[in-house]
């Protein structure tokens, strides 16, 4: 999750090769504003860390024992957590499949520091565009959401949990959950996943 005070980009690395994890962490340490909050060699453990920590970006190997990177993406999304995924692999034949699986980007090993910086910059630019778009006005006009409810929607789009939202907005978790129920009712959606899908189409 992006730190509100420092604007750090929080990342998780999932790669079955420890050396690859360490090297990638070293590359990311050279980019200001990027923080690695976890790195895992086991895909199952990686999924749990993503669900627990809500990172902004997940750097993910494609071929791993037990689960592929595509399996990991699918399972995380099924849990209604939507970080940005960047696949990192030595096999460029996966590029098309990565795009079809809605990966934000695709980096080939060995990763070049300049290409990594470009990917981070694209991520930052995209976040800036999302914040400047007309989403608040659309939500007000089409679904009559209040300013507070719009704030909550924007945080949900960033993958924040009710507890995290309550801390950010300095309100109780109960209040957040009440707003979430109202938001779902007004937008005609049954879950946060459906809500996010709806908002992304606006």
| Domain tally | 2
Helix-strand pattern, N to C? EHEHEHEHEHHHHHH
Shape: elongated
CATH topology of the largest domain: Rossmann fold
| CATH homologous group name of the largest domain | Response regulator
Helix segment count?
A: 10
* Beginning-to-end CA distance, first to last residue: 24 Å
Query: What multimeric state do the chains show?
Result: single chain
Average pLDDT rating: 87
Please name the CATH architecture of the largest domain.
3-Layer(aba) Sandwich
Provide the fold topology.
Elements: E1 9-14, H1 18-28, E2 34-40, H2 43-53, E3 57-60, H3 69-78, E4 84-89, H4 95-100, E5 105-108, H5 113-132, H6 135-143, H7 147-157, H8 162-169, H9 173-187, H10 192-201
Parallel strand pairs: 1-2, 1-3, 3-4, 4-5
Throw out a few tags for this protein.
Arc Repressor Mutant, subunit A; five-stranded parallel sheet; 13% strand; 202 residues; single chain; Rossmann fold; alpha/beta
Task: Explain the overall architecture.
The radius of gyration is 18 Å and the shape is elongated. Strands 2-1-3-4-5 form a five-stranded parallel sheet, sandwiched between helices. By secondary structure, the protein is an alpha/beta fold. It is built from ten helices and five strands, in the order βαβαβαβαβαααααα. The protein has two domains: 9-130, Rossmann fold; 133-201, Arc Repressor Mutant, subunit A. β3 (57-60), α3 (69-78) and β4 (84-89) form a beta-alpha-beta unit.
């Amino acid at each position: 999750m992006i730190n509100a005070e420092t604007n750090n980009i929080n990342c998780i690395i999932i790669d079955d090769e420890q050396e690859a994890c360490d090297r990638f962490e070293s590359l990311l340490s050279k980019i200001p504003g990027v923080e690695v909050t976890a790195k895992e060699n086991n895909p199952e453990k990686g999924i749990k860390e993503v669900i627990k920590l809500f990172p902004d970006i997940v750097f993910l190997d494609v071929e791993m024992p037990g689960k592929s990177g595509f399996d990991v993406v699918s399972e995380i999304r099924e849990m209604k957590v939507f970080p940005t995924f960047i696949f990192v692999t030595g096999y460029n034949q996966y590029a098309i499949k990565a795009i079809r699986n809605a990966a934000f980007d695709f980096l080939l090993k060995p990763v070049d520091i300049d290409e990594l910086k470009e990917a981070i910059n694209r991520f930052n630019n995209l976040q800036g565009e999302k914040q400047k778009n007309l989403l608040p006005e659309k939500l007000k006009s089409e679904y009559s959401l209040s300013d507070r409810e719009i704030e909550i929607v924007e945080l949900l789009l960033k993958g924040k949990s009710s507890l995290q939202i309550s801390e950010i907005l300095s309100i109780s978790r109960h209040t957040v959950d009440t707003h979430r129920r109202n938001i779902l009712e007004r937008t005609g959606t049954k879950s946060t996943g459906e809500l996010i899908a709806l908002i992304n189409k606006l």
